[in-house]
Design goal:
Elements lengths: L1 H51 L3
């Protein structure tokens, strides 16, 4: 995963420069990470509720 991320970063910087990297790549990746974390937290809460109150 590290190698893939590094290659994508290098391609983005070479093709679009720092403006593309800071303007589009960073917000997209940050949003994906935050969305994943929100999903994991909500999923964990739902799992706990369903585990202790099964029906």
């Amino acid at each position: 995963m590290f190698l893939v991320a590094w290659v994508l970063k290098m391609l983005t910087l070479r093709i679009g420069g720092a403006k593309l990297y800071e303007g589009y790549s960073v917000p997209i990746v940050s949003g994906a990470i935050v969305g994943y974390m929100i999903g994991m937290i909500l999923g964990g809460i739902i799992w706990i509720v369903r585990f202790f109150t099964p029906f």
